[in-house]
Amino acid sequence: MAIVDHRSLATGILEGVGGPGNVDSVIHCATRLRFKLRDTGKADTDAIKSIPGVLAVMKSGGQYQVVIGDEVPTVHAEITRLTATDSPVERTAIVADGSMWSPKRLLNGFIEVVSSIFQPIVWPLAGAGLLKALLSLALQFGWLDSTTQTYVILAAAADSVFYFLPIFLGYTAANRFGANKFTAMVIAGALVYPSIVELSASDAPVQFFSIPVAMFNYTGSVIPIIVAVLIQSRFETVLMRFIPTMFRNFATPMISIIVMVPLVLLTVGPVTSFLANALSTGIVNVFAFAPWLAGAIMGGLWQVFVLFGLHWGIVPTMLNDIAVTGNSVLMGPLISAVLAQAAATLAVFFRTRNAMRRGVAGPAAISGFVAGVTEPAIYGVNLPLKKPFFFGIAGGAIGGAIASTGGSAATTFVFPSLLALSAFTTVGSFALQVIGVVVAISVAFTLTYFFVDREKAQEVIDATVAVGSVDVVSPVDGTIVTLAEVPDRVFSAGILGQGFGVIPSEGVVRAPISGTVVTVMKTGHAYGIKSAEGVEVLVHIGIDTVRMNGAGFTPRVARGDAVTAGDVIAEFDIAAVQQAGFDPMTLVVVTNSKQLASIETIGTGTVVHGSPAIAITV
Length: 618
Description:
The protein is of the alpha+beta class. 49% of the residues lie in helices and 15% in strands. Strands 15-11-12-13-17-9-8-19 form an eight-stranded antiparallel sheet, with no helix packed on it. A four-stranded antiparallel sheet has the order 1-2-4-3. Strands 7-20-18 form a three-stranded antiparallel sheet, with no helix packed on it.
């Protein structure tokens, strides 16, 4: 279920239950907020039910429960932010593995955030990247002249999504962090506003109320706007606490824009500029005494520099070198860097069984090889899968070291691609440049092809999937019951979606569908899985078992894991559940039922795990 504004929803619910002062504690399970109120008489149930995004309200087990659905973690986080720091509101995390602050967790978290923010625009990036590749070929073979108006129009169509990338990311990042989406787009728009771009290209000093501003080119950048929107989401939370309701609609965006745009220019720009300049100076110095090492650094990490926008500090040095000496050795390793990522993407294209992934990987690889455009490849394929990105780094480092050992340098500024090799023929060893490129491609492709999982979780279960159908199977052995027979009004009324229940005869729970685990409750009683076809399934073990606080439940998967239908996702103690006074019935609900063409029950009576239970037409 899509919620327009998580913060407004959280604010309405908090006001409806009697305000922060009436909340003793609030936790969340897979679908609902569970309040313990000091005085339930202060809660306005009818008002809460009328709030867009609230599915149901019920009182059970001494708790005041507000049913939200899949968006409940985000709404719970907003409620936590809206309460005072000394509030007793509890936060329930939906992770089940390791320390939150471990390096692996931080890296995986960063990759997951960036990948999820890019996910909605992957297809436009892939399409625009392929168009850029076709335009490059048209220029190379003389089919088009770059001075014609036709080319200018087509180039604008291909470049716009990359040039204005921060605006698109502002919207998707706001959706991820719960900020106002259009305010985020305004902030991003200011960063790529023509006059701001002109100031970044000028050598003249820039000031904001007499405060020096280190200008930076934000067109095509990624991290600055993501960081800005993250800060914006927190700032808006503070504003919501103090601005009267009658002024919020216009005052909150106005203040956010006034504060955030200068803040980004005064902080992100200088920090990025400092790091970029230091990086550029360091690499130039390394080239002076160990070209192979500098080539390995540039070839391996160039795409990482691009990710953080640090490449803008190196590009001016390249341009200056070409203007003064006629060539730039800094560009020598870049073809290996770019083509290694493209090769890793190509390997995913041949390796994956996920039709959607293949659909992105094909054009992304072409745009990388032909036009040097790697955004679709990195953000749509390599970074989400992690290993291909790192294998691309490895291939680029080796190939870059080989190219730089031969002193390869570009005589003109070009986007690194196969078509750009002609710029490297006259300075240094062109043979070593070619060898470096071949090695980079081979290493990245081979490592990805043989060591990246084939995404078996996205395999079709049977031939019906190929024509738009998916079977959801029973996760446990037992007896199937209809949702109407489930002793919980939220499930039985189909508020969360269509599905079924199983009275279990065993305590081993398996995935009812192939896909990616998107939710794992810390208590181990509920799991969310999303299939490659877009089917979203909730597996809920027991009725009201969140109150057991994880006792008797053992998760066997973590968020982000790929699972195939039949893989064990959890184990639980049926006897312990019953002794605690809860029903062990295991529920399977298709939470995005309204978005699917049809859902038909095909399983009844006694079943074993893996038996088809419902058939879905997507």
